[in-house]
Model the fold of this input.
Amino acid sequence: MILLALLAAGCLSYFHYYFKAKTTSTITVVLAFLRFLAVFGILVLIINPIISRTTYETIKPTLALVVDNSASIADLKAGETTRNVYKNLIENDQLLDKFEVQSYAFDRDFRVLNSEKEINFKGNVSQIDKVGVQVNALHKNSPYATVLVSDGNQTSGADFVFEFQPDHKVFPLIVGDTTQYMDLRISQVNVNKYAFHKNQFPAEVFLNYTGTKPISSVFTIKNGTTVLFKQNLQFSVDKRAQVIPVILPANRVGLQLYTATLTTAESEKNTYNNTKKFAVEIIDQKTEVALISDMPHPDLGALKRSIESNAQRKVTLLKPNQVSDLKKYNVLVLYQPNSRFKTVFEANKSLGLSTFIITGNATDFGLLNQFQSVINCSMSNQKENYLARFNPDFSIFAIDNIGFENFPPLENPYGTISLKQRADVLLELRVQGIETGQPLWIFANDNGKRSALLLGENIWKWRSYSFVEQKSFEKFDQFLDKTIQYLAVNESRKSLIVNHERFYNSGEAIEITAQYFNKNYELDEKARLEISIMNNQTKKRKQYDLVRSSNNFKVNLDGLNPGKYSFTVRELNSNSTYTGNFELLDFAIEKQFVNADITKLKQLAKHTQGKIFVPNQIEQLVKTLINDQAYQAIEKAIQKKTPLIDWKWLLLFICALFATEWFIRKYNGLL
Done:
């Protein structure tokens, strides 16, 4: 088609300037040539051929150079060595010639490393597991190798060895002292953050030993200057780790700071890791319980003794006509309510106290249907014995089956019991061995007002039977205590709800979250929340805005110095406030190590078919990487196809040709 276009353009030029003109002057030749080029250009644009161009690009394999920026590097006196290693590798011409070298750093986070100046060894957490995940995410579509410059001491996260892909080699370059020193350390303390006053709480302490000879040590736990626990221990090459279970008393209310210490007469290089502080908030859960009954019954004594087995509970026995002020009570136990209980129910309407209702043969079920919204009872005058069946799906609080199916039957009028609202059934009724599916023991929560119902009298027989079987009242009393504890929790609705811990360890993320609800108790996404925080010792204040997230507002307070702080969260539109406090404990987890963890880094190298190196083996590392045939550059052909009609300059050139032809003809009087 292009040849035809050439022929057509030539013929047209000939026809216009030779066939008609019958002259061969220079001007005619020039004009014919201009016409030929212009017509040919138009025809080529109409044909629109595709112009193809092939270029070649060399793609190098990636080398991820990852540097540990945690504080443990500086504590092991390896900071300068690490910087020199990084500088030598990033400037090595052989590596740069073969690899596309990408630099990264990590401590708590994993990030791109742009220059040596960004390596400051101030990271207070080492999460090496993030390195494996992030490097693979960035380079999973191309071959890559990883050089990990680290001491291998991980302080947070999953086991980093198995976070690296086994089909991508990792070459750990170990910095820090690899000599094994004798060292005792408290590696971990497991303890609940809360405990109840005058109770006991468990703690679990993990102790480790590194060394070559047997040693003796003493482990203690103190609260202030008071020694709460002390034990002599023996460690050896065959006994390098011990787990010490401890039961500690909760004798004082408030945030209690405990110090676990492991001491020995032997000399240690690092004694910082021989001490670990932990804190537990001791809650005064004193509960006033009003046990109201209009009749004598053995159940009353059994309930009082069972509830008061917890020193934090106090039970007051009352008759309905003796009730004058319910405000001083936290929980009401209404035993077999009859018509005389009407004033009690009416008084509790405005107070909204949690109630535990126990029915029996003397109960007025008409009154009960009127003043509670959990169940509807249609009962006869006939008595019936009811056995219990434990519901394994009960989940509103943790409870074990203490043998409910074997307990003696409870008495209650025969009838039908149905639920009016959603409730959690702990026990179901069994009549003569037949499961009825009707509830026997129920828990409900109606807009923050909690209630429980037991449909049967003679619970004293259950407590006695439990004692015969267990030789102790403990299991039954603990079960009933959980019932009272559930009812004692105040869930009054607040517009501003703030969640925070009472204490944090240095290095942990200090995050405070908040929710603000409007008058309909709907989450208000347009709320404006700010927090003002003050160091109680220096009296210095800082102010931050809480940032909106998916379902709450939050602020991160990282960078605070250890100490006690108080804070106020304020919603600016409504001026609602919440005041709280917390303590930041002085605990530097990065100072727990005396040498590099060569064992874990060897495992990592083996897991990925790599090899470990030390700083004076940089040349061997470079040689290994250069000679590894698994990493070869790839030449990639790139073919680019462009339609001729996209060449805008060709259209301009054609226009210029026609314009020139017209100008010459005009100038020479040929128009």
The chain has a mean pLDDT of 87. Residues 26-47 form the longest helix (22 residues). The two ends are 33 Å apart (CA to CA).
